Amino acid sequence: MDGVWLAALSGLIGGGTLLVGAAVAWFVDIPQRVVAGIMALGAGVLISTLAFELVEEAADDGGLVPTTVGFLGGAILYIVADQLVSRPRKHKPVSPSAGTAARRPQTPDATAGATASAGVAPLATGSASARRPAPSEVPANIVARRAAGAAGSAGVVIAIGALIDGIPESIVMGLSVLQGGISIPIVAAIAISNIPEGLGSTAALKRGGRQGRFVALLWLGIALVTVVASVSGYVLLQSASPDLIALITTIAAGGLLAMVCNTMIPEAFDEQHALTGLWATIGFLGAFLLHELA
């Protein structure tokens, strides 16, 4: 029973930092450049964690075949989920009569455009531009809604990444309890890397207009899943083969790397630009030193 509670504690620490990052992003108005810097730092931590705590140990214990299959499978799983969530929505074209053109007096070109929309051929070749608004004529509220929608989608994608890699990560934390207690390097690295995931995702969801109730339930659910997965790793995999453990471990690693490359680094680079590489390097080095000194 003591082992079950230790496994639950590992999952709670690892998943609980998602809630910490989410709460900070929701209640504190953090500048976007700071969020981007933390995301870049977290990306470095994640890359170091998957390299030294997940893939390397999986290859040593289970061999190259399950390591390779799990690593590719985790990446594909994340990419498929990413595409399903972030698939671009089709926007209906904005009619000039519904936007700024409706507030302007009719001009010959505008009259020709209206005639064309009614099925009558325009009289002047220059009237073609009047059939649709120029980009500068699209109402500002529509532009804002589209930008908010993009931010919200990015936030959901990061949350899905946290869930996809969080389940096998938590199972690994439960397995570590079987091998002699809580693994400080693994739990610490996962906890540190989860802060920018919760922070960056919640900041994007907030910009996208999501309600606080939705954000709270989202991260509470993911945190609960990590605790259950950690306990399951301890209880269900006590007699698991090294190959199966390697497969589960590297699914986490593949999902992590795909999420970092597709979401966290691009989001960070949009704000930090050249400094993105420096912050990621610092995060990688910090996690590596933790691994070596533990």
UniProtKB/TrEMBL annotation:
The chain crosses the membrane at residues 6-27, 34-52, 64-81, 170-193, 214-237, 243-261, 273-291. Keywords: Cell membrane, Membrane, Transmembrane, Transmembrane helix, Zinc. The keyword DNA repair does not apply. It is found in: Cell membrane. Residues 89-115 are annotated as: Disordered. It comes from the Bacteria. Belongs to the ZIP transporter (TC 2.A.5) family. This is ZIP family zinc transporter. It comes from Microbacterium psychrotolerans.
